[in-house]
Amino acid sequence: MIRFSDEQIMVRDMVSRLAREKIQPIAIEAEKKHSFNPELLKILHENGLLSLLLPVELGGANADLTTCCLTVEEISRVDGSVGISYATHTTGVFFIVDWASQEQKERYYQKIAREGAYFGVALTEPNAGSDAVSIKTRAERSDQNYIINGSKIFITNAGVAHVFLVFALTKPGMRDKGISAFIVDRDTPGVKFGKEEEKMAVVGSSTRELIFDNAEVPAQNLLSDEGTGFKIVMAEFMKSRLLVASMALGIARGGLDEAVRYAKERTQFGKTISEFQGIQFMIADMAMNVEVAKRMIYTTSEYIGRGKAGKELASFAAMSKCFASDVAMKVTTDAVQILGGYGIMKEYPVERMMRDAKVTQIIEGTNQIQRIIIARDVLKS
Ligand SMILES: Cc1cc2nc3c(=O)[nH]c(=O)nc-3n(C[C@H](O)[C@H](O)[C@H](O)COP(=O)(O)OP(=O)(O)OC[C@H]3O[C@@H](n4cnc5c(N)ncnc54)[C@H](O)[C@@H]3O)c2cc1C
Asked: The domain 230-379 is classified under which CATH number: 3.30.70.1350, 1.10.1420.10, 1.20.140.10, 1.10.340.30?
């Protein structure tokens, strides 16, 4: 098993406490109201979680990928909605840390550290989901600006975040080489938000359309060079998939916690149900799968975090995301089963966990897409 550093353990334990004491009560209300509670941003900011990746001199923790994974895991263990929202913010900040110019870093690091800027990432469009190369959102250069037109759908943190990483075509017809990445501030003229989507899961997070109606984005907000947007997003998928894997792992652990607690309390036929072998075997399988997911995620995040690139790591990131999210789905479904009829009731958290687990099989590339990546890697020689 990977040995965590003192810093990683410190952050993990701090977040675990924060999640239980401060985040969970707000998340329970957000779940009931089906809306994101901005109070969460204050808590995340005050506890240094928005600036985790920033240099220490700016109040950050100079955190590595594994620390970010542990953070997302601990948050998602209590609530998937806050988990997806925070994982998305962290992905957005990774784009800045890994690809922004010095001048852009200075501007956005200050915004995060001082103002608690929150991030979103906008790639998906109505006709471009898995097939991300087919995006139609257009960015045309005009003097000192790019004029962006188009629309992005299903955008986590839309209407909540202050800054978005947006992918748009600068050279239509050039497929992946025609896509560029932009840092777009929420208050940019021409940036609008659609209505809040009504969802079956992660209902305490915000998911809206992000509309660009002649949005004037300063040319200095182009990330890296024109035409590198697709390369950038593919590279960052390695990290963002680990964060979604961690979200899934957190949800699975939450489901296992609840199932164990309930099985030890509930009595039928004069015994606690934990004494029945049928239940024990389910719990053993749940625990086994959670352990494997942990090892996969921690090992892969450590490799990727150390800057080891390579095609096989993209495959390991895909495996981690695919495996952990399938585990989350199975474990939370079994948790509902162990709680019996009570598992279906909103009074207990496992039905929410089961719904939230489904999201992890879809976002950041569906699990079919992850299996394509893995199979390609396995079959290449
Ligand atoms: C709650 C939520 C939050 C999200 N947040 C964001 C966000 O913040 N930013 C963002 O950009 N996007 C976001 N998304 C979008 C998400 O990334 C996409 O939904 C996802 O990539 C799938 O795209 P799609 O929905 O268009 O499905 P499609 O690509 O249309 O896929 C439909 C089905 O076909 C399958 N399929 C597609 N191609 C293949 C193939 N080649 N082989 C086999 N099967 C295939 C898929 O696996 C899926 O089962 C979010 C989605 C949800 C549900």
From this structure: 1.20.140.10
